[in-house]
DNA sequence: CAATGTTATATATCAAGTTATAGACTTATG
DNA sequence: CATAAGTCTATAACTTGATATATAACATTG
């Protein structure tokens, strides 16, 4: 069966990148599920942002993640519910709400940085290894490789190779 | 403000590709809005699939687009509502419902192929022109270029260059 | 050939993004 | 200094993807 998005090339590049991104996220989720993590893969970037940049107001968090503010408001509400982040009003400006990692969130991030993220990063790096040339060709190669060996298998192998 | 997804590299490649895809779709939508098209940019791949492959049952349509079947069922219902596709039960197998372009759908696709898609394709090709090297670098270049000159501006220019 | 299993589609629910807008607070100005 | 304008966050409504499951039609088999 012809892959129409691939055939259409640049015309549907947006749909195609979205599709690849979704598959990567879903595969990553599988890896996390096996490790008994209780949050969605899509929440990690927010936690990583707080880890890298320290406490941030909602708007700057959205900007640093490159998403719209309401999405961050919702994610923050969810993570606060789980006890992974804390939200405090800013002292200088009562409109701003400063988001920071809670103790549990700190622990989760530290564990992820040590035990989980390296494996995922290696798996994705493996997936993209030795790619070069035009973008569309690289995307096709990624799709083919993912179909041949899903990410969670690569994560296992990668973990063996990089202890 | 640091772009966290970019800093995290392979670890968040899925989120990042999704983000780029969404921006491309949104920008494409802007181009279409200006041209008074009444459907969403995300529906075009389905119409293009029917155009390329002819009438197809729902499942094969999903497969050719690389998305899950319920998404196609929903899109088809929407496009049928708009009168752009028709759905008929298969004769051999009463479970299958064959989707095809209606007369209006045919006309829309023909018009799009003639007047609209080339401009979009050129704009995206322009966006990706002269890219080479590692994937992450190309993605960063695309993000930078999109930020500098949004797609709808490129579409205008591309149309002038390629009559 | 009835019962069981399989397949195709529809439906329900969820997730995570979007835009538009409202409400609270801050800043600027006449 | 009161009011107007602006900024920050939350909420509502929508989009578009996903998975899980129900239903209906077909296929197989004891």
Task: Tell me what you see in this structure.
Chain A has 163 residues and is mainly alpha-helical. Chain A has one domain (4-161): Orthogonal Bundle (Arc Repressor Mutant, subunit A). Chain A is 66% helix and 7% strand. In chain A, helix 4 (58-65) crosses helix 5 (69-81) and helix 6 (103-127) crosses helix 8 (151-161). Chain A starts with a helix and ends with a helix. The structure holds a DNA duplex (30 and 30 nucleotides).
Summarize this structure briefly.
Chain A has 163 residues and is mainly α. Helix content of chain A is 66%, strand content 7%. Chain A contains 8 helices and 3 strands.
Q: What does the secondary structure layout of this molecule look like, with pairings?
A:
The structure is a homodimer of 163-residue chains.
Chain A: H1 4-8, H2 13-34, H3 44-53, E1 56-57, H4 58-65, H5 69-81, E2 85-89, E3 97-101, H6 103-127, H7 135-148, H8 151-161
Antiparallel strand pairs in A: 1-3, 2-3
Helix pairs in contact in A: 4-5, 6-8
Chain B binds a DNA duplex (30 and 30 nucleotides) through helix 2 and helix 5.
